[in-house]
Specification:
164 residues, alpha+beta, Alpha-D-Glucose-1,6-Bisphosphate, Chain A, domain 4, 7-stranded antiparallel sheet, 3 helices, 7 strands, globular
């Protein structure tokens, strides 16, 4: 199984980080490639489901599988009626700071022959997803520490999810 994980230290306690992450449409505040984040179902616990529309027009559904307040959540993400990737957000706190991590287990495309997948993953998929996750994490950190909404492509460009 192929998995990618990135993390960042945020100089804010987990309560404030969780407050942000548990808001409906939260990605609009800190995700540099997000154009719109539309809740479909957003209850106190589960079920939760939303739509993420990227700046390049790509539209993904997110369906939340687990929700543990102040600890994290797990979800499936992908195009409607298509294969989905698994994403896990985790918070670890020591009162004043929070380590936020995002891990992605991408779906395996039937368009890529299995024999070539390890090479494609290592040299194409992994770098793109590392860049993507780093941008999202930097956006979250910036938004929380600077108390400001981030700008489109604020930390760089990713051809899978945005435009220049």
């Amino acid at each position: 199984m192929y998995k990618i994980q990135r993390n960042i230290k945020i100089d804010i306690n987990a309560d404030k980080v969780w407050e942000l992450l548990s808001k409906p449409a939260h990605l609009e505040l800190f995700h540099p490639f997000c154009d719109k984040n539309q809740p479909i179902v957003w209850s106190e616990d589960l079920p939760k489901k939303d739509i993420l529309i990227y700046h390049n027009g790509l539209e993904f559904e997110r369906e939340f599988l687990s929700w543990i307040p102040k600890k994290g959540f797990e979800l499936k993400i992908g195009k409607k009626d298509a294969k989905k990737s698994t994403v896990k957000w985790e918070l670890n706190s020591n009162n004043k700071t929070t380590d936020l991590s995002i891990s992605v287990t991408p779906y395996t495309s039937s368009k890529i022959p299995k024999v070539f997948y390890p090479i494609i993953f290592q040299f194409h998929i992994k770098p793109k997803l590392n860049n993507y996750l780093d941008n999202v994490l930097m956006g979250c950190k910036y938004h929380l520490e600077q108390k400001a909404k981030i700008n489109f492509n604020q930390f760089g460009y990713n051809s899978w999810f945005t435009v220049r």
